[in-house]
Specification:
This protein is mainly alpha-helical. It is about 75% helix and about 0% strand.
Length: about 100
Amino acid sequence: MRTEVQNCPMWLTMAAMLTAAALALGLLIRPELISGLPMVLRMPAIGLGVWALGAAFMQPLGLEFRRHWLRRATSPPMSLAVLGAFAVIVIARALWLI
Protein backbone atom coordinates (compact mmCIF):
# COMPACT_ATOMS: atom_id res chain seq x y z
CA MET A 1 0.00 0.00 0.00
CA ARG A 2 1.46 3.31 -1.08
CA THR A 3 0.48 6.56 0.55
CA GLU A 4 0.65 9.78 -1.42
CA VAL A 5 2.36 12.88 -0.11
CA GLN A 6 -0.12 15.62 0.70
CA ASN A 7 0.16 18.71 -1.44
CA CYS A 8 0.71 21.96 0.39
CA PRO A 9 -1.01 25.19 -0.67
CA MET A 10 0.28 26.86 -3.82
CA TRP A 11 1.29 30.05 -1.97
CA LEU A 12 3.46 28.03 0.42
CA THR A 13 5.20 26.27 -2.45
CA MET A 14 5.77 29.59 -4.21
CA ALA A 15 7.10 31.20 -1.01
CA ALA A 16 9.54 28.32 -0.48
CA MET A 17 10.75 28.53 -4.05
CA LEU A 18 11.21 32.31 -3.88
CA THR A 19 13.04 32.01 -0.56
CA ALA A 20 15.35 29.36 -2.02
CA ALA A 21 16.01 31.52 -5.08
CA ALA A 22 16.79 34.55 -2.90
CA LEU A 23 19.16 32.50 -0.73
CA ALA A 24 20.91 31.05 -3.79
CA LEU A 25 21.31 34.50 -5.33
CA GLY A 26 22.53 35.95 -2.05
CA LEU A 27 25.14 33.22 -1.73
CA LEU A 28 26.29 33.84 -5.30
CA ILE A 29 26.76 37.52 -4.47
CA ARG A 30 28.37 36.94 -1.05
CA PRO A 31 29.91 33.44 -0.94
CA GLU A 32 31.91 34.37 2.16
CA LEU A 33 28.77 33.81 4.22
CA ILE A 34 29.47 30.07 3.93
CA SER A 35 33.12 29.97 2.85
CA GLY A 36 34.14 32.07 5.85
CA LEU A 37 33.04 29.38 8.29
CA PRO A 38 35.57 26.94 9.76
CA MET A 39 35.63 23.62 7.88
CA VAL A 40 33.90 21.82 10.77
CA LEU A 41 30.87 24.10 10.36
CA ARG A 42 31.18 24.71 6.62
CA MET A 43 30.57 21.13 5.47
CA PRO A 44 27.31 20.66 7.45
CA ALA A 45 26.15 24.10 6.27
CA ILE A 46 26.80 23.14 2.64
CA GLY A 47 24.96 19.84 3.12
CA LEU A 48 22.03 21.61 4.75
CA GLY A 49 21.97 24.15 1.92
CA VAL A 50 21.96 21.49 -0.78
CA TRP A 51 19.12 19.69 0.97
CA ALA A 52 17.10 22.88 1.59
CA LEU A 53 17.52 24.48 -1.82
CA GLY A 54 17.18 21.21 -3.71
CA ALA A 55 13.99 20.23 -1.92
CA ALA A 56 12.50 23.70 -2.42
CA PHE A 57 12.96 23.39 -6.19
CA MET A 58 12.01 19.69 -6.44
CA GLN A 59 8.41 19.93 -5.29
CA PRO A 60 7.21 22.61 -7.76
CA LEU A 61 8.75 20.60 -10.59
CA GLY A 62 6.80 17.52 -9.53
CA LEU A 63 9.90 15.45 -8.81
CA GLU A 64 9.92 12.94 -5.98
CA PHE A 65 12.04 10.08 -4.76
CA ARG A 66 10.89 6.47 -4.76
CA ARG A 67 12.20 5.64 -1.32
CA HIS A 68 9.85 6.65 1.46
CA TRP A 69 12.43 8.27 3.74
CA LEU A 70 13.88 10.38 0.91
CA ARG A 71 10.42 11.42 -0.26
CA ARG A 72 9.53 12.38 3.30
CA ALA A 73 12.77 14.36 3.78
CA THR A 74 12.20 16.40 0.62
CA SER A 75 8.52 17.20 1.08
CA PRO A 76 6.77 19.59 3.48
CA PRO A 77 6.90 20.09 6.44
CA MET A 78 10.42 18.66 6.71
CA SER A 79 11.76 20.56 3.68
CA LEU A 80 10.24 23.82 4.90
CA ALA A 81 11.86 23.40 8.32
CA VAL A 82 15.26 22.75 6.73
CA LEU A 83 14.84 25.74 4.40
CA GLY A 84 13.98 27.92 7.38
CA ALA A 85 17.00 26.68 9.33
CA PHE A 86 19.31 27.35 6.39
CA ALA A 87 17.80 30.82 5.92
CA VAL A 88 18.42 31.60 9.59
CA ILE A 89 22.06 30.48 9.28
CA VAL A 90 22.67 32.62 6.18
CA ILE A 91 20.88 35.68 7.59
CA ALA A 92 22.69 35.35 10.93
CA ARG A 93 26.05 35.16 9.13
CA ALA A 94 25.15 38.19 7.00
CA LEU A 95 24.25 40.20 10.09
CA TRP A 96 27.38 38.98 11.90
CA LEU A 97 29.65 40.17 9.06
CA ILE A 98 28.12 43.66 8.76
